[in-house]
Design a protein that fits this description.
Alpha-Beta Plaits; 2 domains
């Protein structure tokens, strides 16, 4: 055992060093990896994953061997260390947009570009921070610079259509949470969401947001709207009243609560 540990120690040290070289928001290596991802990997990968999870190739996720190949060599490392999303309620996202510094751009949703199987609005991919220049450079014909007012209008319009929002994070190593894009998501078209629901939180994790739902049982009208709209199956309605399960913090329950019983509060930890 000691011999094995001794052999693994240099690899562990190398991985630790690499993580700290890559994780910085303005790290040249991270920016290089983001450019490669944006230009050559993102859309083909999203398309393939969509087909394998819910599309015409979904038989691949049913057989043991092909499911294993999707889960561990691809989905697990990508979700844990590469790229994943964090839900944000509409009101808090609008505040975040107001606080952003630097240019913002918008272009076509990468998921919907990949599978072309969703009828929701296409120009909803709002790149921010380090993501802005990367996507403008990679796709100058598809992305355009916008102001905060237009970004807010896009988010509000998507919310009015029952969509939920996620801020995506790139290069999740050494505790980094590098935000680079605001995605306006739907349950039938968002590939990371579909991947999370198909393979599970352990394989492809989404990051719980800073806000979570709470419910006042006395004010609840038992309409069931919260259960119907929750994309994460985090609400149940018993005879004794409503209950919040593992809330990811998208805020759809609060915005669709008829009696105002559901509200979003900042997560305690």
């Amino acid at each position: 055992m000691q011999m094995i540990a001794a052999k693994l120690l240099p690899l562990t040290g190398f991985a630790f060093l690499l993580g700290h070289v890559v994780y910085g928001e303005h790290s040249p290596l991270r920016m290089f990896l983001m450019r490669i991802f944006a230009r050559y990997i993102e859309v083909p990968l999203l398309h393939l994953v969509y087909l394998a999870c819910v599309g015409r190739l979904k038989f691949l996720s049913k057989f043991f061997l092909t499911r294993w190949l999707i889960m561990y060599p691809i989905a697990y490392p990508f979700g844990h260390y590469g790229d994943t999303g964090r839900p944000v309620p509409t009101a808090q996202l609008l505040e975040m947009i107001d606080s952003l510094e630097g240019p913002i751009a918008v272009g076509p949703c990468r998921c919907r570009m990949g599978h072309r199987a969703c009828g929701h609005p296409l120009e909803t991919d709002i790149v921010i921070r380090t993501g802005t220049q990367v996507w403008l450079d990679a796709f100058p014909y598809a992305y355009r610079t916008i102001g905060k007012d237009e970004a807010r209008a896009i988010v509000s319009e998507c919310a009015s259509q029952g969509m939920f929002h996620m801020v995506f994070l790139h290069c999740l190593v050494a505790g980094a949470m590098n935000e680079y894009v605001i995605c306006n998501c739907c349950t039938d078209g968002c590939v990371p969401y579909i991947l999370n629901r198909s393979l599970g939180q352990d394989i492809y994790p989404l990051v719980a947001g800073a806000w979570e739902a709470t419910v006042d049982a006395d004010a609840c009208e038992r309409c069931g709207n919260c259960v119907e709209v929750c994309p994460f199956s985090a609400r149940v309605l018993y005879d004794s009243g409503p209950r919040v399960l593992e809330c990811f913090g998208c805020g759809l329950c609060a915005s669709n609560c008829r009696g105002g019983a559901s509200v979003m509060e900042r997560r305690s930890s």
